[in-house]
Design goal:
By secondary structure, the chain is α/β, with parallel strands linked by helices. The chain folds into two domains: about 1-115 and about 300-359, P-loop containing nucleotide triphosphate hydrolases (Rossmann fold, 3-Layer(aba) Sandwich); about 120-295, Glutathione S-transferase Yfyf (Class Pi), Chain A, domain 2. Helices cover about 40% and strands about 20% of the residues. Helix 4 crosses helix 6, helix 5 crosses helix 6 (about 175-210) and helix 6 (about 175-210) crosses helix 9. Pfam families: SMC_N (PF02463). It comes from Luteibacter jiangsuensis. Keywords: ATP-binding, Cytoplasm, DNA damage, DNA repair, DNA replication, DNA-binding, Nucleotide-binding, SOS response. It is found in: Cytoplasm.
Amino acid sequence: MKFESLRISGLRCLDGVAVTPAAGINVFVGPNGAGKTSVLEAAYLLSHGRSFRAGSRDVLLKRGAGSLSVYAEVRKADGSLRRLGLGREGGRWQARVDGDPTASLGALVQECAVVCFEPGSHDLIAGSSDERRRYLDWGMFHVEHGFVGQWRRYQRALKQRNTLLRQGGYPDPSLLEPWEMELAAAGESITTYRRDYLSRVVPHIQGFMGNVLPELGAFSLRYRPGWDESSDLAATLVERRQRDLSRGHTTVGPHRADFSVAFEHAPLREHLSRGQEKLCALACLLGQASLHAELRGEWPVVCLDDLASELDRTHQEWVVGQLLGRDVQVFVTGTEVPSALVGQPVALFHVEHGLVGPG
């Protein structure tokens, strides 16, 4: 998948920006605060429906602007062209796919695949479990069509059970039981999907991990489903009713799942330095992109925000070498062209005061 055009209005400091990126590596250079990261953010919004930067969707809107929009033309591996859009006006978000104003956000995200390595990427390793669940679910959303239905089914049942738990008093078991059965059935299915996905993505991650962190030895990953598997989820939900009632929400299930990484010479995440966490996250993101390419026949767009600040020269050269040899579109930002890309065939763009032009 490749962006053939990207138009951005009302996103942070960007307004009236139109970019025609090259099919290979695109480098956006400019001073700090110029809007470079927001170009990557626009591409990511179309793929995830949210930003990779901290904060709510409200802060995306340019100060004083009444609306925000990101439009793109995306060329797929089969040669087809998709016209995608995401806009916000008056607090309401709207997705478009090929001009259809009734398209769901899910339909939009399925047409656009972007992975991003940025200053906050180490949260995939060191941050909350939310980050790791999003990593898994985004990957499956693009390659496992049955997952989406089970995820929606689970979310609906979870919402209903939580509503009953908050009503006060002890809910009638006959009201809880249907939703718990639904929750358990969808939850077990989601867990199966996630485990299968991990079994396929880990070999891809290992292929990159051995290059970025060879000193740590063999890499492994452990998945925890969100409940004690000595009992099935249905029985666990019944057993946890009283505790969940006191807390007002469901405390077990795939929405509490997590995974942890381990190395032969660093068995705990706490053994990793911040730099090692970043490299580990980079390998996980590239591994996910590689699996996506294997299963979908095309690489997602790869964004590398502030590459020169996030990686040393050796690892910059390594990641550039990995991407130059593949049919993948890349967006890179920096205050100047990263040293690893000097002399390489790149399309250069200059960003300043929210304006983007040829470099």
